[in-house]
Specification:
With about 290 residues, the protein is mainly α. It is built from 10 helices and 2 strands. It has a two-stranded antiparallel ribbon with strand order 1-2.
């Protein structure tokens, strides 16, 4: 069943892309930091999971549970140590975006260099739930289904937390009106650090999910950053629902091209879709044009 194969493959990839992009849009939408090292932290988490599973014999799901608080702590520390001085110097103005792009661009090479020194440029993977499962006449690996379910669970939990909780409401206030948030007693810098850390927790979880079903190498982080940027812009900057829709759309298009045309053309298809969406909806699928 080619159609079922394409649908399951597209949803798995799309769910993963959406989760990576949610972390990036949270960091940019609230903290105003365009983190170009986002994908490098994903690959760092993939290698950490590889070590924990293959050498320490830890269960991959336990590695996923550990990745969430560790990813949060690491990126919270990055924001406090590296980026807070930039926020103070620019007073969170327009110059912050340019300065943070340069700072995280340098961070990209530092993280990638450390991983290359330790692991080299080879591809790594480990075997987990690599057993076939039959669904409606189509065969799919069980680890892909698990990754799809976990991506939906984590993304859904984040969305509900931002919509239904008091803390989530405060985060959304900072995203929409950071200058007026202090008037109602909101600590903008503390919540910006929190949002940046949450983005780090998401991307660390994505790294563990990637390690469960895909081979990975030290140089793959740039690809995930690029695709996360594409999804964020296609969905509309700062919109979690837009990330979900754009991520699923991108995953399905890549799956169709890889299965019916040529796997080597998936990157080209990504950019054709990206340009097409921007031509029809310049502010993204869920964004609104400035007036």
């Amino acid at each position: 069943m080619v159609l079922i194969d394409i649908l399951l493959g597209g949803l798995t990839l799309g769910g993963l892309y959406a989760l990576v992009a949610m972390g990036l849009t949270l960091q940019y939408g609230v903290a105003r930091i365009m983190n170009l090292a986002h994908g490098e932290f994903l690959i760092l988490a993939s290698f950490a999971a590889f070590v924990l599973v293959s050498q320490w014999r830890l269960h991959p799901l336990l590695a996923l549970v550990l990745a969430l608080p560790l990813g949060f702590a690491l990126q919270w520390a990055v924001y406090r140590v590296l980026l807070t001085p930039l926020v103070r110097r620019t007073q969170a103005g327009p110059a912050l975006e340019a300065d943070s792009i340069l700072a995280t661009f340098g961070l990209l090479f530092i993280v990638q260099g450390i991983v290359l020194v330790i692991f080299g440029g080879n591809y790594y993977s480990y075997s987990y739930l690599s057993v076939p499962v039959s669904i409606l006449g189509s065969t799919v690996a069980a680890n892909r289904l698990l990754v799809l379910a976990l991506a939906v669970l984590i993304g859904g939990a984040l969305y509900v937390a931002l919509i239904k909780t008091r803390l989530g409401t405060a985060v959304r206030v900072v995203a929409v009106a950071p200058r007026f948030a202090p008037l109602v007693g909101i600590d903008v810098r503390a919540l910006s650090a929190l949002a940046f850390g949450l983005g780090g927790a998401l991307v660390a979880a994505c790294g563990v999910l990637v390690s469960m079903f895909l081979p990975f190498s030290a140089s793959m982080g740039v690809v995930f950053t690029m695709k996360a940027l594409v999804v964020v812009i296609m969905g509309g900057v700062g919109h979690l629902a837009g990330c979900l829709a754009a991520g699923l759309l991108l995953g399905l298009v890549e799956s169709i091209v890889a299965r019916l045309v040529d796997p080597g053309l998936t990157l080209a298809a990504t950019y054709v879709l990206f340009l097409g969406v921007l031509l029809l909806r310049p502010a993204g699928l869920f964004g609104r044009a400035a007036r």
